[in-house]
Amino acid sequence: MTEILCYEDSYLRECKATVTEIVGSGVVLDQTVFYPGGGGQPCDTGTLEWDGEISEVSEVSRINSKLVHQVTGEIPYIGQIVVAKISWEKRYQLMRTHTALHILCGVVWRDYSAQVTGGNMTPLRARMDFELAEMSSGFASEMETLVNKEVKSERDIKVSNLPRIEAFKIPDLIRMKINKLPPAIEEVRIVDISGLDLQADGGTHVNNTREVGKIRVVGHESKGRINKRLRIEIDY
Q1: pLDDT by residue (tens digit) across 124-136?
Q2: DSSP readout, 18-50?
Q3: 3-86 domain in CATH 2.40.30.130?
Q4: Of 7, 43, 39, 42, which Cα lies nearest the Cα of 176?
Q5: Which of 1, 51, 138, 140 is most deeply buried (CB count within 10 A of its CB)?
Q6: Domain coordinates of the chain in residue numbers?
Q7: pLDDT in tens, 162-206
Q8: Measured at the alpha carbon of residue 119, what is the angle toward residues 158 and 135, in degrees to the nearest 5?
Q9: Was domain 91-234 assigned CATH 1.25.40.10?
C-alpha cells in the first residue's frame, strides 16, 4: 500500500520513492507526495524523475485499491528509485482554496447551523452548497465580509488523526448532509481551524488562515427548495 505523505505534511513538494508495480501506463509507488483527489479536491499533477529521465504525471487514481500515477512518457521499471515532484503552484492554490471553503463552512455553520450538501474546487475557484431555505445577495455580501474577517484573524490550522470511535464523540464533526466517510476507515483525519471550524477531512490545507488571501463571493444561486450555492474566488 502506498504511503501518502501529504496527509502528514501538505507542504512537502517531492520525495524519493520506489516503483512497486506497473499498471497499464501508470506506476504504483511505495510512498508519494501526490494528493490522490477526493472531497471535491482534484488530484495533484507533476513529474517522476530518474536517471536523467523525466515523465509527466497527468493523474493519480485508485485502481483496484492501488494508487496509480498515470505517466506520460517513459515508464520506470519495478524497483527503480524515482523522485516524485508535484506541481507546487497548483497544489498551493488548492490548499488555499480548500482552506477558504472550510472558513466559509465554519462561518455558515456557526451563524446558521446549515449543513453542507455539496462542493467542488479548482485552483482559486470553488463552490459550496448549503441546506438553507433562503440566500439573498445581502447574505452573499455578509458572508464575504465575515470570511475575510476570519482570514485576517490569522487562525492556526492543525491536522491530527483520531481513532474512529473517539472522533465521532466530537459533536458536529461531519458537516456534510450525507456522511460519506467509509465505514472501513478506522482512523479519522481531522482539520482544525482554531476557534472556528473542526471537521473530518482528507484534503490539503495551509497552516494559517492568513495564507488564504482575499476571498470574494462571486455568485449565489438556488439549487432547490432548501439547497443554496455560494461561489467563491481567491485573489492571487
Answers
A1: 999 999 999 888 8
A2: EEEEEETTEEEESEES----BTTBPPP-EEEEE
A3: yes
A4: 39
A5: 140
A6: 3-86, 91-234
A7: 888 887 778 777 666 555 566 667 788 999 999 999 988 999 999
A8: 110
A9: no
